[in-house]
Design brief:
single chain; about 170 residues; alpha+beta; Archaeosine Trna-guanine Transglycosylase, Chain: A, domain 4; 6 helices; 7 strands; globular
Length: about 170
């Protein structure tokens, strides 16, 4: 099953706030991770994902376009996404342990926010365990195609994260 904004009949983009571990959030910002994997997925079309980096960052840092949502048996999903999964095969299968099917959100254009923010302070929304639909326009200024990642975002990531990223890419 594939779904994307192509299947949405709404003129306004549908957004979902996703909680993503900082290591993966950073890899998405750098363009190294083109798929975000989920055990459960949206029940309605989502055009834009608003990216909340979990602890220790605890900020909404960017948004990205959803190209498609791929739902397939695990081996098929891995074979299709592994080149830009941003994770290793062992981690992938451990994450989906006990499942037959998995879901991959194909990441399109990534737009970092100029000023990362706490969703509780800004919108009164607690960061979700997985995701929550956002039925309003965020009114956030973005930096489309901003490379390198803005210092306002980089400063939120602890130095140990960068060391972990470098180590995981080198092995």
């Amino acid at each position: 099953m594939n779904s994307s904004k192509l299947y949405s009949d709404s003129p306004n983009p549908t957004r979902a706030l996703l909680s993503i571990k900082p290591t993966f959030a950073y890899a998405i910002l750098r363009g190294e991770k083109k798929y975000e994997f989920r055990r459960s997925i949206f029940t309605r079309p989502v055009d834009v994902v608003v990216l909340y980096a979990t602890a220790p960052v605890r900020r909404v840092i960017a948004e990205f376009e959803v190209c498609s949502v791929i739902s397939q048996p695990l081996q098929t999903l891995w074979d299709r996404t592994k080149k830009f999964a941003g994770i290793g095969e062992e981690y992938f299968f451990r994450y989906f342990q006990g499942r037959v099917y998995g879901h991959a959100i194909e990441i399109g254009e990534v737009r970092p926010y100029k000023s990362p923010f706490c969703p509780i302070e800004r919108f009164g929304i607690r960061p979700p365990q997985s995701f929550v639909y956002l039925d309003f326009d965020l009114g956030i200024e973005t930096d489309a195609h901003l490379i390198p990642v803005p210092p306002t975002i980089l400063s939120l990531f602890p130095p140990l994260l960068f060391k972990a990223l470098k180590t995981s890419r080198d092995t």
